[in-house]
Amino acid sequence: MEGMFVKEAVDEVFRAIKAGPFAVILIPAIVVAVMWSQIDTGILLLWLSLMVCVILIRYRLAGIYHSSDVTWENAQLWSDRFTLTSLGSGLLWASTPIIFFVENSISHQLFILTLVISLSIGSVLFGAYMPKGFYYFSIPTLSAVVGRLLLEGSVAYVSLSMLMLWYLLMSIALNKKMCGTIRSEMLLRYNSDAMTEALQVKTEEANQAALAKSRFLAAASHDLRQPLHSMTLLFDVLKEAESREERQRLLSKVDLSLVALRNLFDALLDVSRLDANEITAEMSHFDIDKLMKQLSEEFETEAKDKGLRLSFRNSCGAVVTDRLLLERIVRNLISNALFYTEKGGVLLTCRKRGEKILLQVWDSGIGIPEQDQEVIFDEFHQLNNARRNRSEGLGLGLAIVNRLCQLLDLPISVRSRVGRGSVFSIELPAGSESMVVAAEQGVQHSWDLAGRILLVVDDDCDVLDAMEELLTKWGCRVIVADTLEKAIAAVDRSGSLPDAFISDLRLSEVVTGVEALDVLRERYGRSIPGILITGDSIPDQAEFTESTGYQLLLKPVQPARLRTVIHQSLSE
Asked: 369 versus 126: which is more confidently predicted?
């Protein structure tokens, strides 16, 4: 802040100097004219020459200043240069009451005294911006006047010298007050300018966000209408279908539209949950090579079907981040790379770079034009798909990748050449090998759910059936109920205590999932863990879990995620 004060002060002072050097030269010229008959001519001309030199040096400094690139960082240098010229001017004017003091002429004495006082008043105005310049000019000048008057020795002159001393002290006090006022005014203006600029930035961000939201909704509306439109037409044709084969053919097309609709809803839900901060990262140490190998094997068949090579070079160890979210990021990048590559292949690499691990996905695809590399992470932005053909993707994959990277604080970058391919790079923090071993041992110990008794409460019969099928497949004994009362009755009939409770958050208008789990744990044991599942928007999942004591999962829940949370709850 001090640098900005100095910069503005120097601006003001040098602007005033640049305005009129000849008017400043006129004052010492008048002094010489008045004293011409009283003082030696050589002394007068020498004094005038020195004074003109100081004035021209100051004027030249002002010219250089205005043509230079001055910033608040080097403004102090220019302030010091001005101060030196003030000292030179002050010493020259301090010589006037000594050299030009005509003992037998009151009029000449009064002239010099009035002139010095006038000049000191003008220096106060400059000093409000540059106090050092004021001190270097006024103190020598007025001190010389005080000293010369004291030398006269009479009561009148001594009294006058005391008045001049008082005037000097008052000028210093006034200068300090004016300097404080100027600085306060500058600070207010800086704050006002900063607030105005911040408001403009926020307004621009809000406008851009509104435009982005409008584009997002327009694109989403279009992509949602397309499969619905297809289904409407197909159902109309289906009504008139006569043969079983024709109905099957039409139903298969309806199924394709339903799949497209479901995929779009899932992607839109992912974007919405990420924007609403409803997805929280669960950091862990894990072997990145194992994850990359798993994903390369997963996409191997797809690559072979397109005649592409998919290879993985492993040379890294442990990383620390959210494994499931990183898996989604890399899966999206691999899927994109395969989609936009027609010949050659896709290469996955992972190598150490200092304290970081650089994960990269290379492809030999069509490449990305330089002007598009900044916008490929926007929603619904697709290359070479202006007509929004659903078979060429939804345009949400990289938008989700970007949001997940922001959530995990992972820098992501892209380099690409049209016709040569692209490489997406992600920097990961290195993890601990010892913590990877400990985590894997813990997972292996608790992974088996065989024989576990789980109570599932949900008012949707389809969800209950699906949960019962899934949990039974994992080897669990499952008790299901659609109300709290039926759940209590079912547990009592079974004669066994559940190992965990799973409930929908919104059971009915009377009882919530939180209340149901509270009742069940009060009845069967406070140590039994509870898990809640909901389709509602929960702004802060971590705060919800801390306040209720129950793990919260948002629909749709991936089976792997559900199993992981059950494991964690049982192990705790």
From this structure: 369
On the 0-12 / 13-18 / 19+ scale of CB atoms within 10 A, 426 is: buried
For every residue of 258-314, DSSP letters joined together read HHHHHHHHHHHHHHHHHHTT------EEEEHHHHHHHHHHHTHHHHHHTT-EEEEEE
Of 156, 172, 198, which closes a domain?
198
Task: Give the residue, 531 or 135, on which the prediction is more confident.
Answer: 531
- Let me know whether 466 and 401 are in one domain: no
Quick check: is 362 in a domain? yes
Angle formed by the axes of helices 244-275 and 397-408, nearest 10°: 30
Residues 424 and 460 in one domain: no
Residue 442 has pLDDT above 50, yes or no: no
Domain-ending residue, one of 172, 198, 224: 198
Q: How many residues does the chain have?
A: 572
Average pLDDT, the chain: 79
Supply the CATH number for residue 300's domain.
3.30.565.10
Report if pTM > 0.85: no
Identify the pLDDT of residue 19.
65
Do both 227 and 364 map to the same domain?
no
Spatial contact of 360 and 330, defined as CB atoms under 8 Å apart: no
- 439 is a domain residue: no
CB distance 129 to 16 below 8 Å: no
Run of H or E including 354: none
Question: Per-residue DSSP letters for 132-186?
Answer: HHHHHHHHHHHHHHHHHHHHH-SHHHHHHHHHHHHHHHHHHHHHHHHHHHHHHHH
Q: What CA–CA distance (Å, rounded) separates 185 from 182?
A: 5
Q: Going by DSSP bridges, is the β-strand pair 345-353/309-314 parallel, antiparallel, or unpaired?
A: parallel
Number of domains into which the chain is organized? 4
Q: Is residue 440 part of a domain?
A: no
Range of the domain at 235: 214-275
State the pLDDT at residue 269: 63
Rounded CA separation 62/68 (Å): 10
Contact 503, 523 (CB under 8 A): no
Instruction: Among 90-94, 153-157, 330-334, 376-380, name the one with the lowest average pLDDT.
Output: 376-380
pLDDT, average across residues 88-93: 86
Residue for token pair 């290379």: 362
